[in-house]
Structures are given as C-alpha cells and as structure tokens.
C-alpha cells in the first residue's frame, strides 16, 4: 500500500469514528499568538505539548530552521496575516538545538541534486541570474544568532506594528526545555 493509500484508509476510519470531534475549534487563535518553528520531526508533538498549545490556541508556521529569510517571503507574509487578520499579539520564534540547518553541507546538497538529475547547466543558469544555490540553501552556524536575526527581521519589517511582541526561544528537541534568547515582554 502506498503512503497515500494508507492515509486515505486511516482517514476514512477517522471520519467514521468521529475522532475529529475533540479537535473542533475556530480559526481565531485563542491565545492570540503565532509560533514560527522548525520542521524538525522531533518537534511535531513535543513543541505544542512543551508550550501548552492545543488545537485552536495558536497559528503555527514551520520551515527549515525557524528562519525568516526575506522581508517579503512566505513566512513574513504568514506572520503579518496572523497579526492583522487573526488578532495575534505575540510572535514566538522557536529554534532548537541540533537543528538540521546548522552547519548544513550545502556543497553536498548540490551534489545530491545533480545525482537526482538536476543538470549542471541549470545551476549555472541560476548562478548567472544572480542565484547562488549554495548560499541560498545555507542555514546557520549558531541557532542563537539565527533566532536573533529572525526576530530582528520581523521587528524591522516596514509593515510590522510596534506594539506586537516578538520573542526568541530555543527548545531542547529531546526534553522540550525552553531557553529564552529574546524576551519580547521587556
Ligand atoms: Zn531544525
């Protein structure tokens, strides 16, 4: 059975058994908060439990490394929508120790791309168009520095209101313990 078939089979049972009933809520985040975190598999259930987030409590955005790379990219767009459309008052950037984006070997990644059929010419064309794939893929050396940079990207956005708090946290991916890097309350 393929992954899709397995999901569809599970889904049929999920609906038939009305397992969704305990998750019913609204799209307005009750705790008026948005969390930007990493796609790390260890955080899928651990992060909400460790932060006491239940269905309906918060907007959650995930990407590789919990990073805001561009002022006008998808992450920043989501944060602004959370603030202006869904009444979010606090933004939490939650990175974690042992992140796959720290010291990511981007040269190796490009080699893997070529092994999977991406042509050298394609990379060259991108390079000539001003896109250096390796530096674009590059993560960070220190999660603490990266969190601080993301917080400052958010706060310095021309469309981000001054009264919204932005916090920077680091989570232990085994225990869920939180370390405050930037306290937005102060
Ligand atoms: Zn990560």
Automatic annotation (TrEMBL):
EC numbers: 4.2.1.1
Alphabetized CDD domains for the sequence: beta_CA_cladeD
Short name of any one Pfam family annotated for the protein: Pro_CA
Top enzyme class: lyase
Domain of life according to the entry: Bacteria
Entry-linked PANTHER family: CARBON DISULFIDE HYDROLASE, CARBONIC ANHYDRASE
Record keywords, A-Z: Metal-binding, Zinc
InterPro entries: Carbonic_anhydrase
Cofactor: Zn(2+)
Organism: Clostridium frigoriphilum
The protein's name: carbonic anhydrase
Catalytic activity, reaction form: hydrogencarbonate + H(+) = CO2 + H2O
């Amino acid at each position: 059975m393929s992954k899709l078939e397995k999901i569809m089979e599970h889904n049929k049972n999920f609906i038939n058994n009305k397992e969704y009933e305990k998750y019913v809520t609204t799209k307005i985040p009750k705790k008026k908060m948005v969390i930007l975190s990493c796609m790390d598999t260890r955080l899928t259930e651990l992060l909400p439990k460790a932060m006491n987030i239940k269905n309906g409590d918060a907007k959650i955005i995930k990407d590789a490394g919990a990073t805001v790379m561009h002022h006008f990219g998808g992450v920043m767009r989501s944060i602004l929508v959370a603030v202006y459309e869904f009444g979010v008052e606090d933004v939490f950037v939650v990175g974690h120790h042992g992140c796959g984006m720290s010291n990511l070997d981007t040269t190796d990644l490009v080699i893997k791309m070529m092994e999977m059929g991406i042509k050298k010419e394609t990379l060259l064309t991108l390079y000539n168009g001003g896109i250096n794939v390796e530096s674009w893929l590059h993560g960070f050396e220190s999660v603490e520095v990266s969190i601080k940079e993301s917080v400052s990207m958010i706060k310095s956005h021309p469309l981000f209101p001054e009264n919204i708090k932005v916090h920077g946290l680091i989570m232990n991916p085994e225990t869920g313990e939180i370390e405050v890097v930037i306290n937005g309350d102060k």
